[in-house]
Amino acid sequence: GGPRPRPGQEVSVKVLGALEDGGLVERDPRLTFVPGHGDVVQALELGVPTMQPGEVSFFLAAFPYGYGRPGSRRCARREPDVPPEAPLLFEVTLLEVRDGPDPQPLPPAARLRLGSQRRERGNFHFARGDFAAALHSYRLALRALDGPAAAPPGPQEEEELREQRVKCLNNCAAAELKLERAGEALAACEAVLRISPDNGRALLRRGQLLAQQGRDAEAELDLRRALELDPASKVIHAELSRLVKHRSPPACA
C-alpha cells in the first residue's frame, strides 16, 4: 500500500537476482538509490517506480536491461559472474519510499568516492552502447565532484578532484560525439582545457571538431600541440596530415 515513488524520491529495496539456471548473481537486503540517477541496472530503474511500498515484484529482464552484452565480472564479490547477453530474473521488495535527500556538504573523500562510482556507472552504460544513460551518469558524477564541501580539500584531494573532473568531461565529450552532438562535445572539450590546458585527449578531439567546422587554423594549433605532447601518436599524425593536405592549394598542371 501507499503511493508509488515519484521522480526524485529515494527508495530502498531488497533485491535477489538470478540467471536462467537459478544461479544467484545479486543479493542485497537493502539497496538504496534514486531512480533516474543511473546507479542501478535498467530493470530496477524502470521497474521499481511501478511498485508500491511493501509490494514484491518479479522482473524478467532481457540482457539490455541487466548487464548488457558484455555481462559482468565479479572480481571481489561472492556472487558469480554474469555471462554475456544473460537475461536475469529479479525478485524485488520495495521496503521504503522517502523524499530524496537534499544535497549535503560532503568531505572531499566522499565527493571523490561518489564521483568515481557514478563515472564507472557511466562507463558501464557507454560499453553497452547506451550513450544517453552514460552521459547522464557522467553529469551526475560532475555534480557530485562540484557539490557543496564540508571542508576545504587539501592539496592532494584538490588534485584528485581536478583529475576526476577532467576524466568526466572527456567522457562527456565522447558520449556527445556518439549522440552526434558536435557542439556539446566541443563545449565539453573546452571545459577540459580550461582545467587542464595540456590534456592531449581534449586537444585532439577539439582539433578534430574544429576541422569539421572548417576552422582549420585553430584545429592545426590544437593538433600540433597534441603532437608535441604525444609525438608517437599515429592518430594525431594522420589527423594533422589530413588537415595540412586540405589546407594546401592544388598543384598547377
Automatic annotation (TrEMBL):
SMART domains: TPR (SM00028). Gene3D superfamilies: 3.10.50.40, Tetratricopeptide repeat domain. It comes from the Eukaryota. One of its GO terms (cellular component) is endomembrane system. Keywords: Isomerase, Repeat, Rotamase, TPR repeat. One of its GO terms (biological process) is negative regulation of apoptotic process. Residues 8-98 form the PPIase FKBP-type domain. GO terms for molecular function: peptidyl-prolyl cis-trans isomerase activity; protein folding chaperone. It is an enzyme of class 5 (isomerase). It catalyses: [protein]-peptidylproline (omega=180) = [protein]-peptidylproline (omega=0). TPR repeats lie at residues 200-233. Its EC number is 5.2.1.8. This is peptidylprolyl isomerase. It comes from Haliaeetus albicilla. The lineage of its organism: Eukaryota, Metazoa, Chordata, Craniata, Vertebrata. The gene is Fkbp8_1.
